[in-house]
Amino acid sequence: MSIKIPKLPHLPKKLLRNLGICSAGAATISILALLVEQSTLILLIPPFGATCFIIFFLPQSPFANPSSIIGSHLLTTSIGLLCQTQLGDHWWVYGLSVGLAMLGMQLTKTMHPPAAGNPLFILMQAPSTWPAALVPIGLCSLLLALTSYTYRQIILYRLQRPRQRQSTLVQVKLQLFMVYAAHLRYSLHSTALISGIIAVSSLYFINVHHIRP
């Protein structure tokens, strides 16, 4: 007597794609959370969840640009720290900090909507030193930017793949290498931006610390 094995329901491709994207976002945040447990150099903040949504669901959006991810998170965090140290914890400071963050991202062309919530997170926490907040958020933003950049290149390769069916593995590797080399300047700019902001913030904090009795 043969046993009939019921057929598994066929899942739509769109549903499988969405499940895969959600799994990638969950894995990214899980890795960051693991780094939080293992090191004090990483700070996990709520806006990073929204950043993951943009990275994986809107990879072609300018909001998912790696330079925008790094620049916006560092800029808005700096604005939050500046408002916290200079203006205090008043009700109007919350709105002012978000407004300045929006203006700063617009002027620097580093628009990334989730980063607008960074000043609120900073103001809701106990007062902290600039390096203690900027370094962890900078490192975490850098990891998210690398994730976004890699995912964008994978999407770009998949879109071009039907036209390159005759490409060999060596040719594919060469093409990916050329793409990374062409965008190397974005990585250099991001690194310079992180180093500059951290250096200036550290000097600022040291001066304030020595001036206060």
The tally of structural domains comes to 1
**What is the ordering of alpha helices and beta strands?**
HHHHHHHH
Nearest-integer average pLDDT:
77
Helix content: over 70%
Q: Evaluate the radius of gyration.
A: 21 Å
- How much of the sequence is in beta strands? under 5%
Helix/strand structural class: mainly alpha
Write down the overall geometry.
globular
Measured between the Cα atoms of the first and last residue, the distance is: 90 Å
Key descriptive features of the protein:
disordered C terminus, 213 residues, mainly alpha, 0% strand
Write structural notes for this entry.
The chain has 213 residues and is mainly alpha-helical. It has one domain (36-211). Helices cover 74% and strands 0% of the residues. It contains eight helices and no strands. The chain has helices spanning 13-38, 47-57, 66-87, 91-108, 118-124, 130-160, 169-182, 184-211. The longest helix is centred in the C-terminal third of the chain and has 31 residues, at 130-160. It is globular and about 60 Å long.
Short recap of the structure:
This protein has eight helices and no strands. The protein is mainly α.
